[in-house]
Amino acid sequence: MQIIEVKDEQAGGKVGFEIFKEALADNAQVFGLATGSTPITIYKELTASDLDFSDKISINLDEYQGLAGTHEQSYRHFMEEHLFNQKPFKESYVPDGLAEDSKAQTAHYDALIAEHPLDLQLLGLGQNGHIGFNEPGTPFDAQTRLVDLTPSTIAANARFFASEDEVPRKAFSMGIGSIMKSKKILLVAYGENKAQAVADMIEGPVTTDVPASVLQNHDDVIVIIDEKAASKI
Ligand code: GLP
């Protein structure tokens, strides 16, 4: 793992942007994208740039079950607002939160990833060490599936909803198995509330208790962290 410590999210956005730029120069075709507050500064840099993704493919990590893509808190909506509207891709995939047949939907998503192997996967980090919505205990070879969110994730994400009751209890998530197949992985984490997960991810044992620790087994991972997120390493 290559660890890059930055002063703050703005600086992290610039470093992350450079990694996207290098990937494009390296002929990357498929970009795995993430939601949450962490990637926002990278998306800001991307939208302000003249980089062209109009012949590239993006595949997002996850989506809440039960939310339409037009719902303000859906991850599809988030991506449109923060990136796709200003910087379109040829094709952009996000799981369909309203899919009635969840098995068919997860199989379809896995087929998509197999057809378009990921060149660069961007990841945030959950306070409990989750990546995507792969919560602690997820097997490292997991494929796309419908997952139950943990109480800590529901509480952490409640800030985006009117109340905790409105946070969906389940989500579709790309599996750790697919994430690990990406050629390159960029994980970004900011703030004190990520410090323990960052330390466990980098220095702890590789264990399903800390899903992000699996990244120690990948040979091309870049981690961008700010000083607060780095405070326990
Ligand atoms: C959610 C997302 C993750 C994200 C995490 C951290 O649970 N499913 O992909 O990494 O939140 O979010 P934030 O970046 O807002 O701290």
UniProtKB/TrEMBL annotation:
Keyword Hydrolase annotated: yes
InterPro entries for the chain: Glc/Gal-6P_isomerase, Glucosamine6P_isomerase, Glucosamine6P_isomerase_CS, NagB/RpiA_transferase-like
Active site location: D62, N128, H130, E135
Pathway: Amino-sugar metabolism; N-acetylneuraminate degradation; D-fructose 6-phosphate from N-acetylneuraminate: step 5/5
Hydrolase recorded as keyword: yes
Pfam families, A to Z: Glucosamine_iso (PF01182)
Residues annotated as domain Glucosamine/galactosamine-6-phosphate isomerase: 22-220
Sorted UniProt keywords: Carbohydrate metabolism, Hydrolase
Xref: Gene3D superfamilies: 3.40.50.1360
EC id: 3.5.99.6
The reaction(s) this protein catalyses: alpha-D-glucosamine 6-phosphate + H2O = beta-D-fructose 6-phosphate + NH4(+)
PROSITE patterns linked: GLC_GALNAC_ISOMERASE
UniProt record similarity statement: Belongs to the glucosamine/galactosamine-6-phosphate isomerase family. NagB subfamily.
Role played: Catalyzes the reversible isomerization-deamination of glucosamine 6-phosphate (GlcN6P) to form fructose 6-phosphate (Fru6P) and ammonium ion.
HAMAP family, per database record: GlcN6P_deamin
Name this protein carries in UniProt: Glucosamine-6-phosphate deaminase
